[in-house]
Specification:
The chain is an all-beta fold. It has two helices and 48 strands. The strands form ten sheets. Strands 1, 2, 3, 4, 5, 7 and 10 form a seven-stranded mixed sheet that branches. Strands 13, 14, 16, 18, 19, 20 and 22 form a seven-stranded mixed sheet that branches. The N terminus is likely disordered.
């Protein structure tokens, strides 16, 4: 794996202050335990919460007891209790006075944020010092506290500080049950390794997949999550099989509760560094599902402690049996929804589609090229063809399909139908999707699998590999999927599909639009209306904007996100670049005016590429 594979870590390689510690048990013998954020800290009485916190150092096992450990990891603890990551949960009703102390037992100075009278205040603690804090929990929402070494407010945290985080929740009247999911990471730098990294992990509530908690629900449950990002990277968080409603976003200083007109449905949402979000969804179908970061890097072996200096210790893979041979790691939560009541009957006469997965070695330098081809296309008739992206799948809302994937590559295969509300078994996560006794397994080379599902809504979706994503998605295994209303035909003249991906060529990350580093021009007719369907399946945050030669931006109207129509208050013209994360899909409506030459600016500001797609209105 080349160093370029780690661009999805967004700034990870700038953590030059990281220590050079290695896995082991040389530090504090006390363990840093995972925290599921279900038990509030302190003592609440007469409207006042009192608690005593301290910072200590110990050994953290993000991959479970008995796994490799990370030593000299700093974490918060309640005095007299064990260290946890995240730190002790502060959860109180609105109006509570929170009063306490922080004792710094570490051998270095710390700055602690989030516990002052104003949330922007900080506490300065020399080694061995203590400080008092007090604030009033005046406004409901999701907040947090964290610390970094030194007395400077700015700069990236050294690796040993990356677990010095804790969640603060202020509940309004009659709060609904919810769960808190807090993301953190730990990485060391090794400039001479293939990835630029020594070893590390990414965790949710202190554990890394497949050791993260399994969230259990019953069919019909209304589910609410508070998600927090304690890393210096953004994370496009994707929920399989369901839409969620965005209810709020916060930055630790304020938490903005969305009014009904601001709420929208999504299957993928980007959470920025030190940001929180609140979301809700309905578990209306049983089975196993996942909620995960859509950066391929963040669920790859890069985020496993079995990887040292870019090389995976294969002898340790038995420790991750949950999803062999898929082997996801890192930022993944497993969700199980138990069936309840009679399940809906399905159409017994599905439309049959057949797709072949191919690969060809050495297409991008030493990197393998991969592709989907569909029966009945010119590519299918040419065994050497390697079209990227895969063919457009045109489906009909309410009409069941049976898509057979034939694996003619040398790797195990799996396909995920991104954004489709389907049954669990064909969802495409090897060793996990399905129900007890009927779990989907990866498609072995030379084998096939038929995924049956009924798309319930019209819109823009996509399909992509869900096995060894870092190799297969970046190798080209993805394609657009459009669901039409019954009786609707796909107007190729009025629709423009733009699919942004990433590939590794000669150990360098490149962006591609519709499979090309030199995108083909988009030809439009004057005085016509077009629908641009924009798909981000690359490994970088990417913005889209239509620009004139003077760089001014042409207005186009946002109409849908992730296949769901936007509410009227958000379906408005936009004249600024629109940023997307991997896994996000946006639809825009453009009223082409007089003839002119434009450029679709496709910019990945945190990756080493920017593409300009010529747009010609004639």
């Amino acid at each position: 794996m080349s160093r370029a594979h780690s661009y999805g870590l967004l700034g990870l390689l700038t953590l030059a202050a990281c220590s050079a510690s290695s896995p082991g048990n040389r530090g504090d013998p006390h363990a840093v335990q995972p925290n599921d954020n279900r038990q509030a800290a302190g003592k609440l009485a007469a409207g006042v919460l009192t608690l005593a916190l301290e910072t200590r150092s110990g050994v953290w096992h993000p991959e479970g007891a008995g796994s490799r450990g990370l030593d000299s990891v700093a974490a918060f603890a309640e005095v007299g209790q064990g260290m946890t990551t995240p730190g002790p949960l502060i959860r109180v009703p609105t109006g509570t006075t929170v009063r306490g102390t922080v004792h710094n037992t570490l051998g270095r100075a710390l700055t602690v944020f989030g516990l002052g009278k104003a949330r922007s205040d900080s506490l300065k603690l020399a080694a061995g010092d203590s400080a008092r804090f007090e604030f009033t929990a005046a406004t409901p929402g999701t907040y947090f506290y964290f610390a970094r070494s030194g007395l400077n407010q700015f700069g990236l945290r050294p690796v040993e500080d990356t677990q010095l985080n804790g969640v603060i929740v202020v509940d309004g009247p009659n709060p609904a049950p919810d769960r808190i999911l807090a993301m953190s990471w730990y990485f060391t730098i090794a400039p001479q390794s293939p990835t630029g990294l020594g070893h590390g992990t990414m965790a949710i509530n202190g554990l890394s997949w497949p050791h993260t908690e399994r969230l259990g629900y019953a069919q019909g449950d209304s589910i609410r999550w508070r998600v927090l990002n304690f890393t210096e990277s953004d994370h496009p968080m994707h929920l399989h099989g369901f839409y969620f409603r965005m209810n709020a976003k916060g930055d630790g200083l304020a938490d903005t509760l969305y009014a009904a007109a601001q709420q929208r449905m999504a299957v993928t949402e980007v959470i920025l560094p030190f940001q929180s979000m609140a979301l809700a969804w309905q578990a209306d179908r049983p089975g196993n599902w996942i909620f995960h970061c859509h950066y391929a890097t963040h669920i790859s072996g890069v985020a496993a402690l079995d990887t040292e200096n870019g090389v995976m210790d294969s002898s340790m893979l038995a420790h991750h049996q949950t999803d062999k041979p898929h082997q996801m790691f890192g930022l993944v939560m497993g969700i199980s929804v138990a069936p309840k009541g009679t399940q809906a009957a399905v159409d017994s006469n599905p439309r049959a589609i057949r797709i072949v997965q191919r690969e060809k070695p050495g297409v991008y330098g030493s990197q393998t090229g991969m592709s989907f081809v569909m029966d009945g296309t010119p590519e299918a008739a040419d065994p050497t063809a390697l079209a990227i992206p895969g063919p457009v799948l045109l489906l009909e809302r309410g009409k069941r399909v049976a898509v057979t994937i034939v694996n003619r590559s040398q790797q195990h295969a799996a396909v995920h139908w991104h954004g489709i509300e389907l049954e669990s078994y064909p969802d495409g996560v090897p060793g996990w999707s399905g129900t007890p006794g009927r779990v989907f397994q990866a498609i072995a080379p030379g084998d096939s699998f038929t995924a049956e599902f009924t798309p319930p809504r019209a819109g823009s979706f996509m399909y992509h590999a869900h096995a060894d994503e870092l190799i297969q998605i970046l190798g080209g295994l993805y394609g657009p999927l459009v669901v039409l209303a019954p009786g609707e035909t796909f107007d190729t003249a009025a629709n423009r599909l733009v699919m942004v991906g990433s590939l590794i060529e000669h150990d360098t990350l490149h962006g591609v639009v519709n499979g090309r580093r030199d995108p083909a021009p988009i030809e439009l007719r004057a005085a016509r209306t077009y629908r641009f369907r924009l798909f981000n399946i690359g490994d970088a945050r990417t913005s889209f904007a239509l620009r004139r030669p003077d760089s001014s931006i042409v207005a186009w109207r946002a109409v849908a996100k992730d296949g769901a129509e936007l509410p009227p208050a958000q379906a408005v013209p936009r004249t600024e670049p629109t940023m997307t994360g991997p896994g996000e899909i946006l639809d825009f409506e453009l009223n082409a005016g007089a003839p002119e030459d434009l450029v679709l600016d496709v910019d990945a500001p945190f990756a080493p590429w920017r593409l300009a797609v010529p747009v010609r209105i004639r």
